[in-house]
Amino acid sequence: MSYKYFCGLLLTLSFIGYNAQVSDAVKKLAKPLNHISHAESPHIGIGGEESKIYNQFKKVAKIATNDELYYFAMNGSNALKVYSGKELFKRKDKRFLDIYTFYSRNPLKMKYVSGCTIDSKNIAEFLKDEVYAAPQYISLRDELLKNNKQDEIGKTQLKQIKEIGYGKLTEEDVRTVKKQLENINNKTKLDDH
Hints:
The protein is an alpha+beta fold. Helices cover 68% and strands 11% of the residues. The protein is built from nine helices and four strands. Strand 3 (109-115) and strand 4 (117-122) form a beta hairpin. Helix 3 (52-63) packs across helix 5 (78-90). The chain is globular, with a radius of gyration of 18 Å. It starts with a helix and ends with a helix. 25% of the residues are buried. Residues 3-18 have low confidence and may be disordered.
């Protein structure tokens, strides 16, 4: 009987915490993602159609504060957890490392649809993949910015790179985060033995 009360208390406290930490506007935009157990890349399927799940999160990210994203990364659905973690990395929020550490030590496996493939692994691995893919986006962005006479394709590419969150992140930022991820991984391995 006491277990039932304990679970009820935890559920009540989590709702109170949710209401206190996330604005009504963000809650409303995040609601369609509340029970999504997988995540998707911006374009999915053989035809590369836009992901509705990803696009819904981009609406959330547009108005959410870093604190709200951190809350979702730790307490949201699987989709909100991985998307929010990735967004905090792109925003240079130091709590990205806390999120990565948490999911490294407390693995949570989920599915991620990328293009026409489905991958299933720990959230920490998806976050690490984002860090290691970042230099490609940054390099292309910087090359496009150097080109003074951009054609329509170049302008579209630059716009898309900025839309997915790589407008301000630098290669130095990524190198720093990679080193910190390696330190976390080494410490996690030592703790396991």
